[in-house]
Design goal:
Length: 309
């Protein structure tokens, strides 16, 4: 499995210990869009293209690292058109009204928002890097008219009280923040983040820095009535690698994660290498949790329904 290329600091790539299982799991990526529910729910069949609308008092939120920046080792994950179609399917077939997106291109986000209809809104923030001599620079997405590489929020409701909360950062590499907004109709605070990968070239994120980043995320999303998450580039707590989670008074210590109560005790995998690195947390009652597998990214989308009424 290829390693990171220079200038591709966002890609999460498995270590050599993962390779044996990765080949089998990667074969599953070719499956068509489908749902598998975790927690207290059962498997559910594909929606077959049918449109779903959540009942009043229910909010469905998705987080997905779409691997949309082709030069960041995403050449094998489909075209911008395919990714756009998958986002539209997430919205229409799962009833998602909020979609948190990482490694998205700004113009692609605008295109998806327009295709979903006039009631949809979006927020976008670029990844930045320090510029020699001062200031910062951004990364352009490969391909004409695709814009800047970044992360954002799609919402089928108006968003207000938008804030950007800086994250502690390593000395070198891309910069990112926690992007938060309030979905006014449901009165729910929504936040998304994309934390630095544990390894990025010769640089590494220490457990102490990861703990500081997670703490900043929790503080930025402080409830009540909150849903937050994204690509956190770290595994869940457990005997095999608690890591930075053990040094943080949350998110697990304060909020419930999407599949935290899964009966098997094992977290739902969200990366095609076979690991969970994508999360959704909330203080609202959870109805169900699902992982949506798709060949349009090396990550799988994570969807959670919560009760808001």
């Amino acid at each position: 499995m290829p390693g990171r290329r220079a200038g591709s600091p966002h890609r999460h790539r498995p270590s050599l210990l993962w390779v044996a299982g990765a080949g089998v799991l990667a074969a599953l990526v070719g499956l068509a869009l489908g749902f598998r529910l975790f927690g207290d729910t059962q498997e559910t069949p594909r929606t077959g293209g049918q449109t779903r609308t959540d009942a009043a008092g229910t909010l469905s939120v998705v987080t997905w690292n779409i691997c949309g920046v082709r030069q960041w080792n995403c050449e094998d994950t489909g075209s911008a058109e395919e990714k756009k179609a998958r986002i539209e399917a997430l919205v229409r077939e799962s009833g998602a009204r909020v979609v948190l997106l990482q490694e998205m291109c700004s113009e692609d986000l605008d295109t998806v928002r327009t295709s979903l209809g006039g009631e949809w809104h979006s927020l976008f923030r670029p990844y930045t890097a320090p510029r020699e001599g001062g200031g910062s620079t951004t990364s352009r997405c490969t391909g004409d008219g695709r814009g800047t590489a970044g992360y954002g929020i799609l919402s089928g409701m108006p968003l207000s009280e938008v804030t950007d909360v800086p994250l502690p950062q390593p000395a070198a590499g891309m910069r990112r923040s926690v992007l938060c907004a309030t979905a006014r109709k449901e009165n729910v605070r929504i936040c998304t983040a994309h934390l630095n990968p544990q390894q990025s070239g010769a640089r590494s994120v220490t457990p102490e820095l990861r703990a500081d980043q997670l703490r900043a995320l929790v503080e930025a999303a402080e409830g009540p009535r909150t849903v937050f998450g994204g690509d956190l580039n770290t595994g869940p707590p457990g005997r095999a690698g608690t890591g930075a989670w053990a040094q943080v008074d949350g998110p697990y210590g304060v909020y419930r994660e999407c599949d935290q109560s899964r009966s098997s005790g094992a977290p739902g995998k969200t990366h095609r290498s076979g690991f969970k690195i994508d999360y959704l947390f909330t203080d609202l009652p959870r109805q169900e949790c699902s992982v949506v597998r798709s060949p349009a990214s090396d990550h799988w989308a994570l969807l959670m329904r919560v009760t808001t009424g």
